[in-house]
Fold this sequence. Notes:
This protein is mainly α. The protein has helices at residues 8-14, 70-73, 79-84, 86-120, 122-137, 140-151, 155-179, 183-191, 196-226, 238-248, 251-279, 281-287. It is elongated, with a radius of gyration of 32 Å.
Amino acid sequence: MPAAHTPRGALARRRPPARAAVAQPLGAERQGTPHCPRPTTAAPRPGHHNAPSCSPVRSNGAVIAPPDDCLARNEWICGAYLRTRRQILLDAVVQHLQLTFLAVLVGLVIALPLAVLARRWGWAAGPVLAVTTILYTIPSLAMFSLLLPLYGLSATLVVAGLVLYSLTLLVRNILAGLRAVPEETRQAARGLGYGPVRLLLAVELPLALPAAMAGLRIATVSAVSLLTVGAIVGFGGLGNLIYAGMNTYFKAQVLTASVLCVLIAVAADLLLLGVQRLITPWTRAART
């Protein structure tokens, strides 16, 4: 059939398809301009880096990282992480301090009467020290698992575990301090009319303070470090950030949270040392 008599629809079918629009690389209109969203302060999700995943691109489509974008490069030391995650770090530090203080305080309240009873009744010292020592030998993960049926996945679970661990250090050191009080001092106090309670509060406990404070310092530093294991139940303070950062290999988060843990432990130890020197002035006089 001549071309003049070809139906219009057939000609339309013979036309070559229109060329698809060529996709322009992101950022071609402004070479080297970053097109990243603003960094958020949301907590990292498991399996994802909590860092910007986009970087500036050149006009040829090659992705480059800006020289000051340490989050995109996933560096260990990154000031941008401190600026953009300030509130997350503050919340983790506050939780770490609260749980540590509560665990050490409850442990001290329990350990003091146990040590006094062990000193008053010599036969009780062996069982008390044996039980607290056995508790300290239980691994932290096993300890939390054993307490899980009682407290569930809560902050109380972590505090209870830390309290049990602190009893070994506190009971042993308080008992050692009470035993170190000279018997002549006790006899002199009784001769002045001191009863058992007044003797304990006014003579024995003050003289036992150096040993008791040493145990309190060790128990506090130990609680700061062991609290990070509480991240397995979601109440680990800075341990939550360390655990999430290790899962996603987020270097800045792991290093920052770890350094903050060390700083908290050192600061707590120095604070308790200052309190010890303040309430036991006779020890400074004896050294001089």
